[in-house]
Amino acid sequence: EYPAIASPARTQAILNRYRLSAKKSLGQNFLVDLNILTKIVEAAKIKKTDDVIEIGPGIGGLTEQLAQSAHQVLGFEIDQNLLPVLKETLAPYDNIQILNQDILKANLPKIVAELLPGDRPLKVVANLPYYITTPIVMNLLASPLHFESIVVMMQKEVAERLTASPSTKAYGSLSVIVQEMNQVDISFIVPKTAFIPQPKVDSAIVRLTKRENRSVKPFDEKRFAGFVRGCFMHQRKTLWNNLLGFFGKADDTKETITKVLNSVQINPTDRAEQLTVTQFVQLCNACHDNGI
Ligand code: SAM
Asked: Is the pTM of this model over 0.90?
């Protein structure tokens, strides 16, 4: 019987034996605090009936804890050098599959249909590589697959942007676009001392679930995202100026924008950061309804 992979002594022993040094370029920071891993699995509410997708299993510390609670775990690890390590560390488990693939290039619906048959509830759990946190999260959110929840570790600063409220420093297009479709919560903060090697900043576990009861929805999610980015384009400009930048400065466009802002009771001199998510949806839809 081995101690958990994620115990500091065993992790160090594995790294030494395989002469591995964590690759900074791939965002390799291994979790060595079993208590944190347990809390991650709890935050994801993993049950024996759930299939789990893990991004970046590393040397298998989180994967092992997931396998003990889940039906099946499917891991995507880009670093080929870690495959023999994972093969050994995860040998005691018969419910783990590891693919040597870049998660940003993987055809998830096809792979899930092949490797996780049975239509079980699907959850994503990961200690994300920090250099591609945002593209990974955005890809997952845009996936045609239904994830019951996405529970992922990321830099605290990115977590704060994802969960930010209007009129705060961290509130921006990312906050609006993600919160429009999802309930986003920080489950807990993870100090940098929980990793080998230690990252420069603290981390946070973020839980994303689809919002069920939205009062208003954008007429088109992709166009909504573009619209929101347009509204935040120049931070110091007013909403009015950013809207002219986005839709153009023709006289009839100005007239329409004035009319639309009036109809949704938003002040043209406001800044994008003052608008709630619902106000963005109302504004975007009203622009569309008025032909701009
Ligand atoms: N899960 C391990 C843990 O918690 O200790 C390791 C997490 S480490 C922060 C991120 C992992 O993601 C590394 O193992 C890295 O090699 C892997 N990775 C980086 N880019 C990736 C990509 N594009 N696709 C899949 N895995 C990736």
From this structure: yes
